[in-house]
Amino acid sequence: MAADPRIITTTDELAAFCELAKQQPYVTLDTEFLRERTYYSKLCLIQMALPPASAAKAQGGPATLVDPLAPGLSLEPLYDLFRHKATVKVFHAARQDLEIFFHDAGIFPDPLFDTQVAAMVCGFGEQAGYETLVKRIARQPLDKSSRFTDWSRRPLTQAQAEYALADVTHLRAIYEFLSTQLKKTGREAWVAEEAQALVNPETYISRPEDAWERVRTRSGSPRFLAVVRELARFRETYAQTRDIPRSRVFKDDALIELASTKPLTEEDLGKSRLLLREARKGEIAQGILDAVKAGVETTDLPKVIPDEPGRPGNAALSQLLRVLLQAKADAAGVAPKLIASSSELDAIATGVRDLPALSGWRAEVFGHDALRLAQGKIALSAQNGAVKVVPAE
């Protein structure tokens, strides 16, 4: 990297680089952002790199930084590149990056390649972190000294610039290696299928009416859950409209306390052990009291789905499915976590069939045999230290 890397700060410079990127088979990208003080991530930096063989001499050269905080800079040239289907947009662990672009412009990169997903498909295990892939594939050290930094401050330091560019320059070797492996194994469609899930808008939409489902509670009382639902709805709406973290309104432990004590007045709120001082008066206090009242008075109670520990064989079948999953994942060289989650295995054991683990490429690797095991059509046997699928007797 040059001693003083060029940082793109104008729309024209960004447009020139993106036009150059459209001539390449792929471009690697990453972002740096802050979210500690906001509800939505604040985009602070974009890193981009073209293939190393590129003779590009555009703004910033084959790898560049884009400053989205620069006055007057529009990201529309980048979004135009996202729409350009001839150039693959390569990210590592893309979800947070995609969330930023979706909320900013309602757009996703197309086509998308996520090296974290590809690494799990290619046998690098469930913890396919970027640093691990840089060491194992690019054979390069990675300086993480600027990992925890305030990316909104300007000017960027030399160390920050080098750290940021490393996140996309090493990614080129990782992408080329993984894409070659996928072609050899015929699993390109697997990664493409996962990319489609990543660009589903529903993944990035937080609806206030559903926010209560993320709150962990010990009580299954419908009335208690109704108050939890209304408190979570108010908190989510308040945080979204003011772009502040949920925890700045009130934290989950305070929410549970409020749902239990059901305060009726600001004086009652003052007795809370967990509620922030700012939430005991004003708009937040009134919102809490209104939410509690709505939860107490509603006739639309949450439907509590009882656990089914009593269904014969559920627990035992779940364990067998875990053994089958590990055996199938080992045979395919794929991370088990990518194929099916523990909750999906439990759901299969209780008869649920509309699950990702039972469709697409996952069905080929695991799902079909999982159903056959659940139906008693196959059994598992230990042979020479390995688990094998055998016909049921």
From TrEMBL:
It comes from the Bacteria. Keywords: Cytoplasm, Exonuclease, Hydrolase, Nuclease, tRNA processing. GO terms for molecular function: 3'-5' exonuclease activity; nucleic acid binding; nucleotide binding; ribonuclease D activity. GO terms for cellular component: cytoplasm. Residues 221-302 form the HRDC domain. Its cofactor is a divalent metal cation. One of its GO terms (biological process) is tRNA 3'-end processing. Its EC number is 3.1.13.5. Pfam families: DNA_pol_A_exo1 (PF01612), HRDC (PF00570). SMART domains: 35EXOc (SM00474), HRDC (SM00341). The keyword Hydrolase applies. CDD domains: RNaseD_exo. It catalyses: Exonucleolytic cleavage that removes extra residues from the 3'-terminus of tRNA to produce 5'-mononucleotides. It is found in: Cytoplasm. InterPro entries: 3'-5'_exonuclease_dom, HRDC-like_sf, HRDC_dom, HRDC_dom_sf, RNase_D, RNase_D-like, RNaseH-like_sf, RNaseH_sf. The keyword Nuclease applies. It is an enzyme of class 3 (hydrolase). Belongs to the RNase D family. PANTHER family: RIBONUCLEASE D (PTHR47649). Exonuclease involved in the 3' processing of various precursor tRNAs. Initiates hydrolysis at the 3'-terminus of an RNA molecule and releases 5'-mononucleotides. This is Ribonuclease D. It comes from Paracoccus salipaludis.
